[in-house]
Design brief:
nine-stranded mixed β-sheet, elongated, single chain, 1664 residues
């Protein structure tokens, strides 16, 4: 057979060509796809729920908006008109007829009243006017007719009649008997009857005896007998005695008459009455007891002098008269005619029986407080008592109360409504001061606005209003409108059959002391939802504005038989509504009730629930149940519905997002999740939420059959299990969900069963919220739980060893694609956002990414957009119209300069700009919306915060910034060597998959691992996680931006379990200040902290391998010796880290046996290094002292025998190296390039040494070590003072002039410069001026010049006297240095006596906390109880010890076991300030805290409630809002006291306080809607609070810049639903699907390119 090789060869070439062509096409396509611009991917907004729930909300809110535009959905407006014959008026037949005085004005009469004034004087006046009706017929409001109505109607009450309590009588005096003063005076005047002469003589007596009558002397006889009785009786006795004797003499002439003739009686009333009472009686007898029609018998009447109140026009205001009154001892029986009142005054005529009070009769009467009406009054007209000052009234037998009868009776607190009352007119009691109200059974109709604006009304009881069969009982519209003080309304057992619009609505909430507590409503059983008189029997806006309302129960007959829709505005403003109940008696009661989905849109109470029947009468799902599925509230996309399953007897809750229905039973079991029956098909993506609660049932488990709805399963895109809900996801619960892409697992889940998510081939993202109880070890993940078959999988969760999600992701046996080596990517939760991948080559759990400061704005674009929109919306309210008007004027006048003015802010939004353009125009170019000119920037606010709230970071944004500045790499992460990870080929597909690099096979393509190229300033950068290419500052001239090297924004790094620091790991992280390294670190590469110019502190925590002190890091060798790993570049920049390295400053040098390569490289602030006291050191390694710019002196020990390459090399950019190195060893091998070959470089050695030969050979300066010793004087900054002195043995050096350092006092040199026997370094020693250690500060309490100072050294009895050589605390300086040994802390070393020593305790071990410092050497600490403290160095060596006690550490000491201390001397502990809250309304006050700025003293901040603060805050709120109707507020009196709490601080100049307090209990639900302000100059001083949560308690933090008053307040009319509870927008950018396509295409392209052709039937593809 012929060979076919040529043809086969041709086919392979063709295939290769085709394959590579396709590969090229695929790669181009991949690049094109990757280049497609896409909108920012925004994570689900946690405040509104997942996508489908958001769609539901959008739909409902759109419906609400359309209803508002149509005018059907709106807030309540009081709409009652009772003018004229308006339809709201009741009793119009009465008002226009019987009770209308205008048609009875010709018949008006008056009644009079006599009363005694407080001064005892009597007053006579008319009391009221009335008219009389005869046999009238009237029609009542209820339609009844009353015939033969006869009686009096009061038409006007005398407003001037001043009497506290008035008791009206049914029949009243119309006219009293009165006598004018003129008539009385005329009676006793000239010619008057009172001047008549009365006389009786003896002869008159004799004539009377003889004739038997007094004849014409009868009146005289009666006058004397009545008024001069005793004289008259004596006259008669004497006359009778005489007359008898005269008779006897006539019979017997011899009888001797001895009795004398009585003197005549002669009297004139005017002159001879001794009392005015006698005159009064005589006048009455003459006037009223004589004649043809006397009114009484003689002596029965008298007169009373009284004030005449019936003043007619033109008469004197002081008018008097006499009133006729029964004399003492006389009764009405002594009257012949007339009537006597209770005080005995006699009236001439009486009124008819009074049966009613006409319109306006008592209107404006202000001089009556209590009115007692007679039982006969049955009718009261319109405005009868309007605006009067009545305080109480009893309506015993009144049947009809007119419109506005008691309106605006602002003092009327008590009214008794009797059992006869049928109708209460419109606005009858509006604006009155009633405190309680009980309505009797007889009331059938309460008119519109009848009790409106009764703000003091607390209780209303209408249960007695029983309508009976076919009797309608109606509460009119707005009947109790704006009665915001109500505590209770009882009507559940009443016969009420109709309630009008807005009957219980309110537009005001009152103050905290006046707002009522009415929270429960049970509607009366007569309300059925029927149409009555053309209207539904349950009105709209019924409870609008009732913020205290929590529970409403509908009657069982409501919607029982017919479909009924609840009025759409019934619950407007009911923000705290918790439950709506439709009674379920198992028979379908309320089964046909429905309502609009936005009925509860104003409710912010998160626990709102609707309960009712499961089914209607026909057995179908009850209408309220289905209506609730579509409902939302202000804070939730779900409104739970509760019902009882009649078969099982169990209660169930269910909620719906608009697509699916979740059902849970009373045992907390999620029993079913099904699609709604009526949602449109095909089904879109379902974002499933398993809530913590369904209704009030806490979800704790999922029924095994819960997710059996296959149609639902086929469309689930995401699953969110809310926190504090289920504990376990059962086996196979979510197996094989074809569309599932991401999952959020709540904090209560601790077990995921076998195969729970197996086969979910699109699942790529799983978030594990932090375990609620901190039980990381208790989490379990079953077999194959996440064997999804997807191409990638990212876990988000806490990084914890022993935590199942982290361990599962890092398990060597768990792959996403084993062939390609693709692992699970693990990312820590926001805000830390660390990315960890398992290293296929080393098995290390490697950190490959972390938050970058410079990318915060870029990574959170969605958040920034949301914040801009939030502030635009918040400031769009009309409250800011004045600011917009001011900006408009500024813009017209100054153009774009207005952008820099005070009136430019978020209130300048696009909507307003367009509106202004359409209405008035801008007179030119329109301005930009605020955030277009000044875009919201997280970084911008952080770096330049402002005083306005939009210029302050939210807690969430602040956490992002902090996480980029302080990186904590938690336990569980072994490696930060991302460069090594990326360079290993076994990890390459993880780079492609998770780091977003399509060509990720080459590690250098990822910027932060890239060596800086030559066109990037030719800088020798080091690729690495923290050291690579970073552009951190926009300003390239920034001192921190060293040619893009290193991450210059990180300030602190914590490495809890990293085992190895790569070479140059943190190279050029110029702003890094502190690094904490945990116990797991076992190796440190070359100079990991090179270029970290501000790194002052490296802490090795519980690490036996490494230690550090004063900027030098040592490794501890097995033999106990030390290796210098690295000297921090910060060494020499701080007085605690001097520029000279020697045994005095660094006692650990005695243990040094080795130095790491580059250990001192680039240490630009050390001037001298003395290693003579390191006798075991043999080698100076490569680059050991390279590029130390000011290093001029190095002393090596004699043991050094090798100096390696570039050990002392210098690259000083044109300057020549001037270093002097002392090499005492004679046989030292020196690498050729160990030194710069310059004459300015000096080697000091012995003449016959190898070092001498090296110097001669390379032209380096040389000095004979044997001839003299060097003495160098060095200042605090490392600079040599004067020249280096060469001093012969035992000779003295000459010190330079005392150096000068600003703010310090020079106190001597560190070493003795006399009798020199070795090379010596003398460091200048200083003391800070004013630190109290010497005479520098005369005001210091410790000033030794103060004779009153107990520490005065001149006092021989002072135990601190420096002249006492035995004094361990000798503060004097003897010019010598001594050693401090610190046990359990840092700060030890050698110090000049008299200098200040700072010491810091180590970080306490777990379960311990710092207690105090102690010393057996008599050290006096500045503060023995502070973890960081100071003391004055005595003239002896001392040991100090940090002591610990059991307990939790209350805070960080900012120190560690082995800390390199930098600027810690400038750090002050937080001042000891406490917060005391005595103001009611708070809970959890123990979490309050405060920090005082501007003072280091401790204080007490007191928060109380005072009337003055409340009044001031209310006034400021009123000035701001005009009305407090929609404002809820919480005034506080904040004051500052001394630390003992006994003295109030009145002068707070320069002091501010940052205060954190819990939100008041009643304000928690308002979340971010809460505002806080102080009061300055009677206006609100608005603050910008930060909201946070402490131990689960919502808190706010604000800065108090003055003291008292303050207040928290909420504008309930402008609530932002997104701000309830948590106003911080959230974001998290996902990966757009285009990347999956692009990566897939690119991968196929690579495979096709690299595929090799082989002979045989099959060729395996191997990826090189």
């Amino acid at each position: 057979m012929a060979k076919k090789a040529p043809k086969r060869k041709l086919n392979r070439k063709a295939k290769r060509l085709i394959r590579r062509s396709i590969a090229a096409l695929l790669m181009v396509t991949a690049i094109g796809v990757a280049a497609i611009p896409v909108p920012d991917i925004q994570a689900v907004d946690e405040s509104t729920g997942p996508a489908t729930a958001q769609e539901k909300r959008d739909k409902v809110e759109k419906q609400a908006q359309e209803a508002e535009e149509a005018g059907t959905r709106r807030r309540v407006q009081y709409d009652v008109s009772v003018s004229g014959n308006d339809s709201d008026c009741l009793n119009q037949e009465l008002a226009n007829g019987l009770l209308n005085p205008e048609i009875h004005n010709v018949d008006v009469e008056q009644t009079y009243k006599i009363k005694q004034l407080s001064n005892g004087q009597w007053q006579y006046n008319w009391q009221f006017k009335f008219y009389t009706v005869y046999n009238e017929s009237i029609t009542t409001e209820l339609g009844g007719t009353v015939n033969n109505v006869t009686g009096g109607i009061i038409s006007e009450y005398n407003k001037e009649y001043d009497e506290e309590t008035v008791e009206l009588q049914a029949i009243n005096p119309m006219e009293y008997y009165t006598v004018t003063v003129a008539d009385y005076e005329s009676f006793y005047g000239d010619g008057g009857a009172g001047r008549r002469q009365f006389s009786l003589t003896y002869q008159d007596y004799v004539d009377q005896v003889n004739s038997g009558a007094w004849g014409n002397k009868q009146e005289d006889k009666e006058f004397f007998e009545q008024y001069f009785t005793s004289e008259f009786n004596e006259f008669i006795r004497l006359a009778g005695l005489r007359y008898e004797q005269e008779l006897k003499q006539a019979q017997d002439p011899n009888f001797n008459v001895t009795a004398r003739i009585p003197d005549p009686l002669n009297k004139t009333p005017n002159n001879d009455f001794t009392s005015v009472e006698s005159k009064y009686k005589y006048f009455c007898d003459c006037t009223f007891a004589t004649g043809a029609s006397p009114i009484a018998s003689k002596g029965a009447l008298t007169l009373v002098y009284a004030l005449d109140g019936d003043i007619q026009q033109g008469e004197s205001s002081s008018k008097f008269l006499y009133l006729v009154r029964l004399a003492d001892g006389k009764t009405a029986s002594d009257l012949v005619r007339g009537q006597a009142d209770k005080d005995g005054f006699v009236s001439e005529t009486q009124s008819v029986r009074i049966i009613g009070i006409a319109n306006n009769a008592f209107r404006g009467v202000t001089k009556i407080e209590h009115l007692l009406l007679p039982a006969e009054i049955a009718y009261i007209g319109d405005s009868a008592f309007e605006s009067s000052f009545l305080q109480s009234i009893e309506l015993t037998n009144v049947s009809d109360i007119g419109n506005m009868t008691f309106k605006n009776c602002s003092r009327l607190t008590s009214v008794v409504i009797g059992n006869a009352v049928n109708v209460i007119g419109a606005e009858a009691f509006s604006g009155s001061a009633l405190a309680s109200l009980t309505l009797p059974y007889s009331v059938r109709k309460i008119g519109p606005g009848a009790f409106s604006y009764c703000t003091g009304l607390k209780t209303v009881d209408m249960n007695s209003m029983s309508g009976g069969n076919n009797v309608e009982v109606e509460i009119g519209k707005y009947a109790f409108f704006d009665c915001y003080g109500l505590d209770s309304v009882n009507m559940e057992n009443s016969g009420i059959t109709k309630i009008g619009d807005g009957a219980f609505a309110t537009v005001r909430t009152g103050t905290s002391s006046t707002q009522g507590k009415w929270d429960t409503v049970v509607l009366p059983p007569g309300i059925e939802g029927k149409i009555k008189d053309g209207q539904r029997d349950l009105g709209d806006w019924l409870f609008d504005g009732r913020t205290t309302l929590k529970s409403v129960t509908f009657p069982s007959n409501y919607g029982y038989l017919d479909a009924v829709e609840i009025p759409e505005n019934m619950f407007r403003g009911c923000i705290n509504l918790t439950e709506v109940i439709f009674p379920d008696y198992g028979t379908g009661t309320c089964g046909y009730v429905t309502y609009k989905p936005y009925l509860f849109l104003d409710v912010v109470e998160p626990n709102l629930v609707v309960s009712g029947p499961a089914n209607d009468q026909r057995g179908n799902k009850a209408s309220p149940r289905k209506a609730t599925w579509g409902a939302i509230s202000a804070v939730s996309d779900f409104v739970p519905y509760k019902y009882k399953d009649q078969r099982t007897g169990l209660d169930y809750y269910e909620v719906s997002d608009g697509n699916y229905l979740l059902t849970a039973n009373q045992n907390g079991v999620l029993t079913s999740c099904t699609l709604l029956e009526d949602i449109p098909r095909p089904i879109g993506d379902i974002d499933l939420v398993i809530p913590a609660y369904v209704g009030n049932y806490k979800i704790t488990s999922i029924d095994t059959n819960c997710f059996n709805d296959q149609e639902l399963r086929d469309n689930i895109r995401s699953i969110t299990i809310e926190d504090n809900s289920v504990a376990e996801i059962g086996p196979e619960t979510f197996i094989n969900l074809p569309k599932l892409e991401w999952v959020v697992i709540g904090n209560s889940v601790n077990k995921i069963g076998n195969s729970a998510f197996e086969g979910c081939t699109l699942l790529e993202d799983v978030t594990f919220n932090s375990p609620a109880n901190g039980d990381y070890a208790g989490f379990e993940i079953g077999m194959n739980a996440f064997q999804t078959g997807s191409k990638r999988l990212t876990f988000h969760g806490d990084i914890k060893e022993g935590y199942a999600p982290f361990d599962w992701a890092m398990d060597p046996d768990n792959y996403i694609d084993k062939d390609l080596g693709i692992r699970v990517c693990y990312k820590s939760l926001s805000p830390t956002n660390l990315t960890v991948l398992y290293d296929n080559a080393t098995g290390a759990r490697t950190l490959v990414d972390y938050p970058k400061y410079s990318r915060i704005d870029e990574d959170n674009k969605a958040f920034i957009t949301r914040m801009e929109n939030t502030y635009y919306e918040r400031y769009s309210a009309s409250d800011y119209d004045d600011r917009r008007a001011s900006f408009l004027a500024d813009w017209v006048a100054n153009g774009t300069a207005a952008y820099e003015g005070d009136w430019y802010g978020p209130w300048v939004n696009r909507t307003w700009i367009i509106t202004q353009e359409n209405t008035g125009g801008w007179g030119g170019e329109a301005p930009k919306p605020y955030f277009e000119e000044f875009p919201y920037s997280i970084l911008g606010i952080y770096e330049n915060p402002g005083s306005n709230e939009w210029q302050s970071l939210t807690p969430l944004a602040e956490s992002w910034v902090n996480s980029a500045l302080k990186i904590t790499i938690p336990s569980g992460v072994d490696s930060i060597d991302a460069k090594k990870y990326m360079e290993d080929g076994s990890n390459r597909y993880n780079l492609v998959t998770y780091l977003g690099r399509n060509d990720g096979l080459r590690a250098e393509d990822y910027d932060m691992y890239v060596l800086a190229q030559t066109d990037k300033d030719n800088v020798d950068s080091v690729p690495g996680l923290f050291s690579g290419y970073f552009k951190d500052y926009d300003d390239e001239e920034s001192p921190y931006e060293k040619k893009y090297r290193g991450n210059d924004r990180i300030e602190e790094i914590v490495l809890e379990s990293v085992t190895y620091l790569p070479d140059y790991a943190f190279d050029s992280c110029e702003n890094l200040k502190k690094v904490t390294i945990g116990p797991g670190c076992e190796d440190i590469g070359t100079s990991p902290f090179r270029g970290c110019d501000n790194l002052a502190e490296v802490v090795f925590q519980d690490n036996d391998k490494y230690t550090s002190n004063k900027g030098i890091i040592y490794s501890v060798n097995e033999d106990g010796s030390y290796t210098i790993e690295e000297c921090l570049p910060y060494r020499g920049m701080d007085t605690s880290m001097p520029p000279v390295i020697n045994l005095s400053n660094d006692p650990d040098l005695a243990k040094v046996s080795a130095i790491r390569e580059g250990a001192f490289e680039d240490c630009n602030y050390i001037s001298a290094v003395d290693l003579r006291d390191s006798p075991n050191l043999t080698t100076i390694p490569e680059k050991a002292f390279k590029n130390c710019k000011i290093l001029t002196q190095v002393w090596l020990p004699e043991s050094v025998n090798l100096i390696k390459e570039e050990a002392f090399a210098m690259d000083l950019e044109g300057e020549q190296s001037r270093i002097t190195v002392t090499i005492p060893g004679r046989e030292v091998h020196i690498a050729t390039d160990a030194f710069e070959h310059l004459p300015t470089v000096m080697i000091r050695s012995y003449e016959d040494s190898a070092a001498h030969e090296y110097a001669d050979y390379h032209g380096i300066g040389w000095e004979n070590l044997a001839e003299t010793f060097q003495v160098i004087f060095i200042d605090y900054d490392g600079k040599i003072i004067g020249e280096v002195q060469h001093v012969e043995k035992d000779k003295n050096a000459v010190p330079p002039e005392d150096p000068v350092r600003e703010g310090y006092t020079f106190i001597g040199w560190s070493e003795d410069y006399t009798g020199i026997t070795k090379d010596t370094i003398c460091l200048a020693q200083y003391r800070l001026n004013g630190d109290g250690e010497g005479p520098d500060d005369p005001n210091k309490p410790g000033n030794p010049d103060d004779p009153n100072n107990p520490d005065n050294p001149d006092d021989p009895n002072n135990p601190g006297n420096p002249d006492d050589p035995n004094n361990p605390g000798n503060n004097g300086s003897d010019g010598k240095s001594y050693t401090v040994t610190v046990v359990n802390g840092s700060g030890g070393g050698t110090y000049l006596s008299g200098s200040t020593v700072q010491i810091t305790a180590n970080t306490p071990a777990s379960g311990k906390r710092f207690s105090f410092w102690s010393s057996a050497d008599g050290v006096s600490f500045a503060n023995a109880n502070s973890a960081t403290t100071t003391f004055t160095m005595p003239t002896k060596n001392v040991t100090v010890t940090a002591n610990y006690t059991t307990g939790s550490s209350s805070g960080s000491n900012n120190n560690g076991n082995s800390s390199v201390s930098g600027n810690s001397s400038n750090k002050n502990d937080k001042n000891n300030t406490t917060v005391t809250i005595n103001r009611p309304g708070f809970t959890n006050t123990d979490i309050s805290s405060a920090t005082v700025n501007g003072s280091k003293d401790g204080f007490v901040v007191r928060i109380t409630e005072t009337a003055e603060a409340t009044q001031a805050f209310e006034a400021a709120l009123t000035a701001e809002y005009g009305s407090l109707e929609n404002i809820r507020y919480f005034p506080m009196d904040i004051t500052l006291w001394d630390s003992t709490g006994t003295t109030k601080i009145t002068d707070t100049t320069g002091i501010t306080v940052d205060i954190t307090i819990p939100l008041p209990t009643d304000f928690v639900t308002y979340g971010g809607n809460n505002k806080i302000a102080g009061v300055v100059n009677d206006r609100l001083d608005k603050l910008s609070p930060k909201f946070t949560t402490i131990d689960g308690v919502p808190c706010m933090t604000f800065r108090a810049t003055h003291f008292s008053p303050y207040g928290i307040y909420v504008d309930t009319a402008n609530l932002n639903a997104g701000a309830m509870q948590d106003s911080t927008p959230k974001t998290g950018d996902g990966i757009h699907p285009k990347w999956f396509l692009a990566i897939g295409l690119a991968s196929i392209s690579v495979v096709l390119f690299l595929k090799k052709d082989k002979k045989g039937s099959k060729t395996k593809v191997r990826i090189a």
